[in-house]
Design a protein that fits this description.
Strand order of the largest sheet: 1-2-3-8
Number of helices: 12
CATH superfamily of the domain at 83-155 and 260-391: MetI-like
CATH architecture of the domain at 83-155 and 260-391: Orthogonal Bundle
Structural class: mainly alpha
Distance between the termini: 56 Å
Helix content: 55-70%
Number of strands: 8
Strand content: 5-15%
Radius of gyration: 29 Å
CATH class of the domain at 83-155 and 260-391: Mainly Alpha
């Protein structure tokens, strides 16, 4: 009996890799060591090659004078500016195009996606032709078309195309009036953002009220009224003033106003037109993914077509739309680097191009450029994943 109890208490030992938990830990340690060794080999090999070529490394070049011009910048730039300022110029120019492109491409893409499903034959066919045409032409060729065939074919400065509100377009770009707000206008800006916070709180309250009582509150109309009334009232009370400095044609060019170079206009327009075609298909797929029974149920309640889309179909379609929409936002941000092909001074052109050629610090500059795009991508994904979690259906 004693020998049998001993055998039960002490089962025969097996090789530790047969244990799935220990095996998983062992493989992770091995892979981690291989990755560390690979990185150490790359670092050592890079250091040896730099030493053999008698090249220095480090980020001290950022505080050296650049000595080159940049055609478009959101802040002061001249030849005496430093390389870290060139990095900021490329960063802000890239961010400017990305933000404008995402906002406009989203609006245009949602409009086209819904239009393609329209019961109106002409509207649906026009949207289809636009989407299929734009999606199947490479973006770089489209940028060349907008830049060389459209903007560079515009009339000269003296024969500029004039639009309402003192807007002019010619070969040198687009000229807009420059707003010159006074010191009191800051109160209007603060009131505007506070009103947005109130509108968000009102929307949350209206949704809870709808869930509890079934009664709708016109939150959109009330929010729009507040956004107009409260800042407007603060404007009147504070006496704020926003005069505009319009562009005025001089002897050889326009003076005053804001000049948007043709490179910026072509890149922003091309990114919006191209990305909107893909967003439209994403929106169409999301709407078609909603069961047709939801549409029939909304019709049985007497909802108009616009209300059916806004209140029933689109909210349910968003859970399908958001993940691929995130990819389109990331693609638009990364595709902004194609601006280098038409001379727009974005990050790749200014920093990974001109700055790299002048300093020779390829490793440092490319690493900083990659870090910027990685940061943009991670932040965009983080925001969109948070929004996707908010609009996802909750299972009961």
């Amino acid at each position: 009996m004693a020998s049998m109890d001993t055998a039960r208490q002490a089962p025969p030992r097996t090789f530790f890799l047969n244990d799935p938990v220990l095996r998983g830990v062992f493989y992770q340690i091995v892979v981690g060591l291989l990755v560390v060794l690979f990185l150490l080999w790359i670092i050592n090999n890079t250091a040896i090659n730099l030493q053999a070529q008698n090249k220095t490394s480090g980020f001290d070049f950022l505080w050296k004078t650049s000595g080159f011009d940049i055609s478009f910048s959101l802040f002061h730039w001249d030849r005496t500016s430093y390389y870290w300022e060139a990095f900021l110029v490329g960063l802000t120019n890239t961010l400017l195009v990305a933000v404008i492109g995402i906002v406009l491409a989203t609006l245009l893409g949602f409009t086209l996606g819904i239009a393609r499903l329209s019961s109106n034959f002409i509207i649906a066919r026009l949207a289809t032709v636009y989407i299929e045409l734009i999606r199947n032409i490479p973006l770089l060729l489209q940028l060349f078309f907008w830049y060389f065939a459209v903007l560079k074919a515009m009339p000269a400065v003296r024969n500029s195309l004039e639009f309402p509100f003192d807007i002019f377009i010619n070969q040198r770009g687009m000229f807009l009036p420059r707003p010159l707000p006074d010191e009191q206008f800051v109160f209007v800006v603060v009131a505007f953002f506070l009103t947005i916070a109130v509108a968000i709180g009102l929307r949350i309250w209206a949704r809870r009220r709808l869930d509890e009582t079934g009664h709708r509150f016109p939150v959109l109309l009330v929010s729009l009224a507040l956004l107009v009334a409260i800042p407007g009232l603060v404007w009147i009370v504070s006496g704020a003033d926003v005069p505009f400095d319009p562009p005025v044609l001089q002897r050889f060019n326009f003076a005053g106003g804001v000049q948007l170079p043709p490179e910026f206009v072509a890149l922003a327009f091309g990114l919006v037109i191209y990305t909107a075609a893909f967003i439209a298909e994403t929106v169409r797929a999301g709407i078609l993914a909603v069961s047709h029974g939801q549409t029939e149920a909304a019709q049985s309640l007497g909802l108009k077509e616009s209300d059916r889309l806004r209140l029933v179909i689109v909210p349910q379609a968003m859970r399908v739309i958001v993940p691929p929409l995130t990819s389109q936002y990331l693609n638009l941000t990364k595709n902004s680097s194609l601006g280098a092909a038409i001379g727009y001074p974005e990050l790749v052109n200014v920093f990974a191009g001109t700055s790299l050629n002048q300093t020779g610090r390829a490793i440092e500059i490319i690493a900083m450029t990659m870090a910027v795009y990685l940061t943009f991508s991670l932040l965009t994904s983080l925001i969109m994943n948070w929004y996707n979690a908010r609009v996802a259906l909750v299972e009961r």
